[in-house]
Write a structure and sequence with these properties.
The protein is α/β, with parallel strands linked by helices. It contains five helices and six strands. It has one domain: Flavodoxin domain (Rossmann fold), CATH 3.40.50. 35% of the residues lie in helices and 27% in strands. The protein binds flavin mononucleotide.
Length: 156
């Protein structure tokens, strides 16, 4: 059995909807996979090391007053509580959301990739959802298949 640990945050429910759509698709395709989801505000540094694969999911927000930033609760986790975390080559997948109306569309992706790289993680697959996720379920479902086939740790 493989374990996927998801850490995410969501204010409007958009990121949570994408995460839940992903979990449903993963469960439909694999009976060997255990998926845990955890809100960033409830997570500590050691939670990033849980499971075989870590998935970080965040919308893009104007945290700290400038656009193109991580969701404030993901920001607080990654830049404060988990700032010294060593991911020890853990495979990490990433989901970022954003909205086309903003100049730095879905920039949360860059921050998450940077976090993984700077903390000794192994970036694997990434998914960007721009605008409302409702109606984009197929994109998420296809990405679920990609995760299952491309990340060896999830196939075991
Ligand atoms: C105050 C505010 C600031 C935002 N800033 C950005 C931004 O800089 N870039 C972007 O692509 N989207 C931005 N968004 C859009 C959100 O990232 C998008 O609506 C996302 O789906 C929200 O998901 P969540 O509520 O699950 O975090 C912003 C939304 C709000 C309300």
């Amino acid at each position: 059995m493989a374990l996927l640990h998801i850490i995410y945050s969501s204010s409007t429910g958009n990121t949570e909807y994408v995460v839940d759509t992903l979990i449903a698709a993963l469960h439909e395709s694999s009976s060997k996979l255990i998926v845990e989801k955890q809100r960033a505000e409830e997570a500590q540094a050691e939670d990033l090391l849980k499971g075989d694969v870590l998935l970080l999911a965040s919308g893009t927000w104007n945290t700290g007053g400038s656009e193109g930033q991580l969701h404030p609760r993901v920001y607080a986790l990654l830049t404060d509580r988990a700032k010294d975390c060593d991911l020890r080559q853990k495979p990490c997948a990433i989901i970022a959301l954003g909205d086309k109306r903003y100049f730095y569309t879905a920039r949360a992706m860059e921050h998450l990739v940077q976090f993984v790289q700077q903390h000794n993680g192994r970036s694997t697959e990434s998914l960007v959802i721009v605008n409302e996720p409702y109606g984009q379920e197929e994109k998420v479902q296809k990405w679920a298949q990609k995760l299952l086939t491309k990340i060896p740790a999830l196939a075991s």
